[in-house]
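hey can u check if this looks right to u? its 194 residues, i copy pasted from the old doc so theres a chance i mangled smth
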Amino acid sequence: MISAIILAAGSSRRMGQPKMLLPWGKVTVIEHVISTFMHAGIEEIVLVTGGAHEQVEEATVQYPIRRIYNQDHAAGEMLSSLQCGLRALETAPADAALIGLGDQPQVEAQSVRSICTAYPEGSSRLIVPSFQRRRGHPWLVARPLWEELLTMQPPESPRDFLNKHANEIHYVDVNTPSILADLDTPEDYQRSHP
């Protein structure tokens, strides 16, 4: 079983307002991301919140997901949010965790499915989507590697972890740049929202 961790704990400093709550079509950015993962067949989703966590939790109350608040979110480290999500899954039956970004509403369900399908097919413990040889999100990490992520300390980052295991990564080529796109600034949002 593959569970997902959606990282939505950032403080949206560059956006100037909580980006998870911005409109995306008929829903918010974070709702769209959750829906995409659900449409891709992910049954267990852990949402890690931080900045504006009460509003984000309220906006997602109708979804059958687990919500975890990262008390260390103000430090701005993605690693601490990822560790919160992994700890929440330690007692779950998941063999692997799919790591997604809450500010990446452009990601398509087909990309998520492709990554998940590649996991049982091969023997790799790391599956990463690639567009024109650039790594993106969401990426998948098998349970045997979770402990290493859980013991990492700042300033180490998930990127450092992936770089360390670069020769183990199985890349899934996707034909969309959406795996690279996230929303950091008002310009990003204006350029991409539907």
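The chain has one domain: 2-192.
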